[in-house]
Structures are given as structure tokens and as C-alpha cells.
């Protein structure tokens, strides 16, 4: 083992961590207002008279409201002009008031009422309504029955969310830097016989020690389980001379981290070592392909070209890369645009992506290195430094 892998224990590593001291500022009320105005311009250009944004990450983007969807309709309505409206159950008003970061009127509804009909009666049916594609089918169908026409608001919403502001980049940077510190601590507690569930609990506790709400997700895979991108449904025990794959993340003000490291616990086979080097090369090729104006799919192609030249694939054939090279990240852990064939979205400064062209040898092992970058005026910049070597998970 190196000093980066093994040799410590849970208590020692948690004691090394403390509440994060350098917190990025929260999104300002002025930025929320600017987001609404920018979306309003796109909405008008699309020919819509109003837009309905479902509760969840997109509503948080516009209002700061950190709620998740349920069967009860909570939504933001952005009209062509005037004050936005929030549709909300009456009994939730106080909770909403405490969190909302914009000026808004309310459309409040009691349990037996139809909130869509109330919105349309109170403010008149729009001639054309842009609907968030993440509205439930039932609510979307009800709006479609009560307005003149509808269109998909996905492009209107995504055009804003894809391009991160300096404040968003700072929050993303904090989340990713924190998770990398948790990764370092997790690597040091590894020992023969430790269970994956023990490592998962430690990672959650470590994220909490730093001041987050815990791990947003966590996957810990040993040996042959690394061949399955999202693991196997049982609790493994670590053995000497196995690959370790750990994928985890947290959220800061709703903004996500999502970092994967794959490294050797002891000595691994020549094929595993060669595959790690190839994975490193594919990740580097994807990063090097990034510059403004390049279609997203070309970044995916750059990673795949490295693998194809080495005799893997082609396409999604295994051994090789079974999924896209990367995904957008922000208030959702996976969000547009995507580094995948068929996504021709041009890269723009402020876009943020994972870079994770995983290589899988079916039923044997897999290697995934995942770091994130943001697009700059001239290329790309890493949020976290990629892994340096199979035996050295951290720069």
C-alpha cells in the first residue's frame, strides 16, 4: 500500500476533518431575478405567453425553493410581463415564504380544489403555454385541456441552466473539492475485510463532518463488482490485490459533486494496470477535445477513438465503453447537455460536465476515472485534478 491507500482508521480520519471554513456565497436574489428575465425573453421568442416550471431543480434555479415534486402541484408561472406566480397548497404557504428568493404572487389551493383550473381562472388562460417537461403527465394534460396551445419549455429552461454563472461555478467547486477530501480519507481507511457498507457509512459521515447534509449518493465496489457501472446488490468484503472503485458526491446549495476513483489495493493484474492507463488516456483525450463551438458528441468521439485504437469497442461493444463519456451537472446530478453521440449542442463557456469514459471487461473488472470540468473561452478547466496513477489516487 502507499500512504494514500490504507494504514489509517475511521476515527483518525474523521478527526482530521472539520467543518469547511471557506464557503462559497449563496446565489443572490438579484441573480434569481436575472434568470427569470432571461428565461422570459427566451419564452417570448418561442411564442409562449407564459411558462410553467415544475417544483424541483428547475424551480430552485429560478426561485431558490429547494423542494422535491410530490403528487401535489407546486409550480412557478412566469408570464410575459408582471410578477411571477407560485401555485402552492394553502397549508404550505408558510414554508414557501421562508425559502422563496423572488417576489411572487400566490395561487393557493385547498386539498379538494383543482390547482390548474384555479391558475387559469385567476389569471386567464394563456393563448400559448410553455410547459416544463418534468411536470407530471396528469398536471400537464390538465393544462393542455384548459389553454389554447402548449409547447415544450425544456429548451427555454435548459438554455439558462446549462451555462453556469461565476457564483454557480464557485458552489460547484466547493462541492467537488469537499468530496475529493472525503475520497482521500476513505482511501486511507481501507483494510482487508472491510465491508463496502462500512466505507459507504464512513463517506456519509465524512461529508457531514465537513458541513454538508451527507452523501448525495455513494457506490463502493471491489474486484469483479467494478465490472458493473453501478455495482452489484450485495455487501462485499475487500480482499488483498483487488481493484477499488468509489463513486460519490454531495450537494452545496443544491449544486452537485460526483467524483470517481479507481485504484489498486495491493497488486493487480497486468490487464487491469493496462486498462487503467488506457482509461487515463481516454479521459485526457476527451478533456483535450473541449473548446467553445465544438459539438458535445465530438468529446465523446475523442474518448472512444482512444479505445478503438487500442482494440476495444467499437461503439458500445464490450470490452469497451458501455455508456456516454459525460453528463452535464449543476442543480441536477445529470442534466443537459451530454457528452454522447447524437448530442450536437455546441460547447459554450460556463457549461459543466463529468468526464468518465469507463472501460468495462464484462464479469471481470471495470475502471472509471471521473472528474469534472467547465468550459472556458479557450478550452476546459478541471474542477479537480485527475488521478495520477493506479497506485496514487490523488495528485
Automatic annotation (TrEMBL):
<dbReference type="InterPro" id="IPR001131">
    <property type="entry name" value="Peptidase_M24B_aminopep-P_CS"/>
</dbReference>
<dbReference type="InterPro" id="IPR050659">
    <property type="entry name" value="Peptidase_M24B"/>
</dbReference>
<dbReference type="InterPro" id="IPR036005">
    <property type="entry name" value="Creatinase/aminopeptidase-like"/>
</dbReference>
<dbReference type="GO" id="GO:0004177">
    <property type="term" value="F:aminopeptidase activity"/>
</dbReference>
<keyword id="KW-0378">Hydrolase</keyword>
<dbReference type="Pfam" id="PF00557">
    <property type="entry name" value="Peptidase_M24"/>
</dbReference>
<feature type="domain" description="Creatinase N-terminal">
    <location>
        <begin position="35"/>
        <end position="163"/>
    </location>
</feature>
<protein>
    <submittedName>
        <fullName>Aminopeptidase P family protein</fullName>
    </submittedName>
</protein>
<dbReference type="InterPro" id="IPR000994">
    <property type="entry name" value="Pept_M24"/>
</dbReference>
<keyword id="KW-0645">Protease</keyword>
<dbReference type="Pfam" id="PF01321">
    <property type="entry name" value="Creatinase_N"/>
</dbReference>
<keyword id="KW-0479">Metal-binding</keyword>
<comment type="similarity">
    <text>Belongs to the peptidase M24B family.</text>
</comment>
<feature type="domain" description="Peptidase M24">
    <location>
        <begin position="171"/>
        <end position="377"/>
    </location>
</feature>
<keyword id="KW-0031">Aminopeptidase</keyword>
<dbReference type="InterPro" id="IPR000587">
    <property type="entry name" value="Creatinase_N"/>
</dbReference>
<dbReference type="InterPro" id="IPR029149">
    <property type="entry name" value="Creatin/AminoP/Spt16_N"/>
</dbReference>
<keyword id="KW-0482">Metalloprotease</keyword>
